[in-house]
TrEMBL record:
Entry similarity comment: Belongs to the high-potential iron-sulfur protein (HiPIP) family.
Signal peptide: 1-28
Main function: Specific class of high-redox-potential 4Fe-4S ferredoxins. Functions in anaerobic electron transport in most purple and in some other photosynthetic bacteria and in at least one genus (Paracoccus) of halophilic, denitrifying bacteria.
Protein name: High-potential iron-sulfur protein
Gene3D superfamilies to which the protein is assigned, alphabetical: High potential iron-sulphur protein
Domain High potential iron-sulfur proteins family profile: 27-104
Keywords assigned by UniProt, alphabetized: 4Fe-4S, Electron transport, Iron, Iron-sulfur, Metal-binding, Signal, Transport
Single GO biological process annotation from the record: aerobic electron transport chain
Record bears the keyword 4Fe-4S: yes
Subunit structure: Homodimer.
SUPFAM superfamilies in UniProt: HIPIP (high potential iron protein)
Length: 104
């Protein structure tokens, strides 16, 4: 009976380790959007709003950033967060793209 309990414990411990490892992966931040990515380029995404080419994107105005865009869903104060324009990726809170819409 002792060997059964030990075996049961080892199996449960292994399962717990696997669960913790997968939970850590699930909680890991998504990768950052690469400015050179095709989708990012087509939307004029820049990780630093100040580097937006205003001649190419006349819609851009100083002060517009992902952090104050209605589509950005990162928490206040975070340096990056999710945006539905780039599913599965993270945008810089200081970034900007041509889909920018002020938060109301």
């Amino acid at each position: 009976m002792v060997s059964h309990n030990r075996r049961h414990f080892i199996l449960q411990a292994a399962g717990l380790c696997a669960a913790l490892a997968s939970a850590e992966l699930a909680l890991a931040a998504p990768p950052a959007v690469d400015e050179n990515d095709a989708a990012a380029s087509s939307l004029g995404y820049r990780a630093k709003a100040g580097s937006v080419d205003a001649a190419k994107f006349p819609k851009y105005h100083a002060g517009q950033t992902c952090a104050n865009c209605r589509f950005y869903t990162g928490a206040a104060g975070d340096s990056a967060g999710p945006c539905p324009m780039f599913p599965g990726k993270s945008v810089s809170a200081d970034g900007w793209c041509n889909v920018y819409a002020p938060r109301v």
